[in-house]
Amino acid sequence: LAAGASVEARTTQEGATALHYAALGSGAAVAVLLAGGANPRREDRAGDTPLMLAVSMGYDRCAARLAEGLV
């Protein structure tokens, strides 16, 4: 991020952002991405938000950080 990477860049296949991947177990990365302006409401091509992924996979700490980012 410090070098200018976009927090909203998406993968070509899934349309996922770095926040989608961080939601799958990296609470520290979730915090950094949210602080950098990542949109926790951004849906991937399947219609899933990072919060939806964290909840469905049981990553409670990530889900809590993402929920905080929604307010």
Describe the structure.
It is built from 4 helices and no strands. With 71 residues, it is mainly alpha-helical. Helix 2 runs parallel beside helix 4 and helix 3 runs antiparallel to helix 4. The chain is globular. The termini are far apart. 28% of the residues are buried. The model has no long low-confidence stretch (mean pLDDT 90).
Number of strands: 0
Strand fraction band?
Answer: under 5%
Helical content stands at 40-55%
Rounded to an integer in angstroms, the radius of gyration calculated over CA atoms is 11 Å
Secondary-structure-derived class: mainly alpha
Number of helices: 4
* Span between termini: 23 Å
Provide the residue-averaged pLDDT: 90
What global shape is seen?
globular
Instruction: Name the helix and strand elements from N-terminus to C-terminus, one letter apiece.
Output: HHHH
Q: Largest beta sheet, briefly?
A: none
Which regions have little confidence, pLDDT < 50, spanning 5+ residues? Answer: none
